[in-house]
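Notes from hallway chat w/ T.B., transcribed later so I don't forget. T.B. wanted the structure written out for a chain they're using in a teaching module, and asked if we could keep both sequence and structure tokens in one place. Agreed to drop them here.
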Amino acid sequence: MKAKTSVFYCTECGNELSKWAGRCPACGAWNTIVEQASPKIAPAAAKGRGAMLPRAKAHPIDELDETEELRFPTGMGELDRVLGGGAVKGSLVLVGGAPGIGKSTLMLQICSQLCLTNKVLYVSGEESPHQLKMRAKRLNVMSDKLYVLSETCLGDVLESVTEESPDVLIIDSIQTMYNESLDSPAGSVGQVKDCTMSLMQLAKGQGITVFVIGHVNKEGSIAGPKVLEHMVDCVLYFEGDQHMTYRILRAAKNRFGATNEIGVFEMRNEGLAEVPNPSELLLSGRPVDAPGTCVTCVMEGARPVLAEVQALLAPAAQSVPRRTSNGFDYNRAAMLMAVLEKRGALKVSTCDAFLNVIGGLTLDEPAADLAAILALASSYLDKPIGSRVAAIGEVGLTGEVRSVSHLGQRLSEVQRLGFECCIIPERHAERLESIKGLKLVSVSNIANALREIVRS
């Protein structure tokens, strides 16, 4: 009987099928089945790859020493924050982002601090050693413990790891790596999955910390099978507009820490610079006493961050008004406009509406609802809220303003940046301690909040 010459993979879950289908039977995703050449693994190659790793032995869990899971700083405080306090020995970290966003720059910059106490092997499948030397010189990254290798064959990379015995391994990028025992091309579903599995066995078997760079596709997810994100210990996404200088690093998965922390960087000629206070960054250049703008405070992990929400309402030029939202959930913005018209008695349904969050930040927390409502109303009434006024609160469908978590910590950040007044939910307002220099205005619904705009 003739052997299969190709197999079909689901790019979402990695499920293997014998024939093409419009919908994956495992995860239910549509149009995610792709065809790849059937893998032909040579027995000798498979045996040699397995022989490079020591055989694992089972141990009673009460005899294991948890102090062996050591953390070490990467030299980037913002990166350490996202990782949960530093990199973990023997972990596999996947760093994803759009081309040119700064992934390779970030990985090369941390080598400067890592090489003080560790031996680092930087493997690049996209640049030659001379190009890496030029980029390292520009970033001022020089050390005799930093080894560079320009290679795309996984077998040669594993042999170099055996020869050099590094403490940290950086792969740039996983889409350029290939296993010569597979017939499929580099970057295919089978190759990405197999190479990641080998790197995971290397990290767990020899205790090497592995950083893997991955490119993202047009949907914004890391190219390759979705199972790739389940295999690694930590998934980091590097976000930001290429035309802007600021970058945001956030964790989508982290087995050793929280996933709601963010790190903020600024791209400069000499590389990435950390931004320890993103609130001042996001509020820089804010207009004074301009209608259609309001400041709110959201929690990014344990860090309070102030963000400016801008809105613009204008008479609709067509029969169907236009709605645009940038940095704010589109469906939630439409819901808030409906609440503003029904409960706030403002005829916003006949206007073109544009909502924007300054600085490239994405607000997915309900605490920004009140600021969005006030910005929309301020633009509609053409009346400024005030440059020293902030608003924090969640808005319900009946127009009520609900309380949010960590309100005291948010107010402390608002006061620290020089704001004089903050509109907050009425519930739990009496339990808050007074903050010197900050006037608290408690409201129970958006009608009361709109009266504060008119009164000011």
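Follow-up for T.B.: Confidence is low (pLDDT under 50) at residues 42-51. Might be a good example for the class.
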